Amino acid sequence: MKPSNQEFLKKVLLVSTFLFLGTLAVLVSFYFKNYLSRDGGQAKLPGPALDVVSALQASPIVNYQGATIDLDLSATEQQTLVLHFWASWCEPCITEIPEFLESIEHSRAALISGKAEDRDSGLNPSSVQSDVRYFAISLDDNKEDLTRFLKNFPKLDSENLVRIWDPESTLSARFKIEKLPATIIKLPNNQIKRIDGIVDWKNIKF
What CA–CA distance (Å, rounded) separates 52 from 82? Predict the structure, then answer.
């Protein structure tokens, strides 16, 4: 005896409901794992405190031109290190970069001004204000794309920041970067902060 159309529709509806609930459960799980686990976009890195300096020194580092560079990280204990991961194909990165560059200029201007005032007061500048070092780390895997992008943002290839090219994502994997943009901040007290997504560079405080 063939099932009635009504019974067939009930079975289809039941199967569809199970599929919908299963998909919903996966999406909810993904949301909690990737968003609600962070505190307003900021969170300390999980597990033991990450040694940023060791991670930077673990393998050869190249600049945007592909030339190996020797990072001088001997004086980083009292410095704030800002590692900003980006790529030319990342639309949020493109939106963020102008404010990122402006933040670097303001930081350097404030530092220079502060040290000048300290010298005039007879104080040791290094004992009053710590440096902030910026690292702009590109994950572009195509040299031409990177070069073309730098022509639009020449300040991104300036001496005001350390330029690192990570085409194989070796460095980003070491810092567990899964999406862009992302920023790792090491403070002078060795506290580590991580910001996934666009940073409010105009109001950020280290």
Answer: 10
SS3 of 42-87 = EECCCCCCCCHHHHHHCCCEECCCCCEECCCCCCCCCCEEEEEEEC
Looking at domain 41-196, its CATH superfamily turns out to be: Glutaredoxin (3.40.30.10)
Give the helix/strand (H/E) hosting 145: helix 143-152
Pairing of strands 132-138, 162-165: parallel
Whole-angstrom distance, CA of residue 197 vs CA of residue 45 = 15
Which of 5-9, 52-56, 132-136 is modeled with the greatest confidence? Answer: 132-136
- β-pairing, 182-186 vs 42-43, is unpaired
Q: What is the mean pLDDT of the chain?
A: 78
- If we measure between CA atoms, which residue out of 68, 45, 76 comes closest to residue 174? 45
> The whole model's pTM is what?
0.70
Please give the helix or strand (H or E) that residue 5 lies within, else none: helix 5-31
Name the band, by pLDDT with cuts 50, 70 and 90, for residue 40.
Answer: very low
Distance CA 38, CA 7 (A): 47
The structure tokens listed for 204 are 């950020």
List, in sequence order, every residue forming a beta bridge with 183; answer none if it has no partner.
84, 195
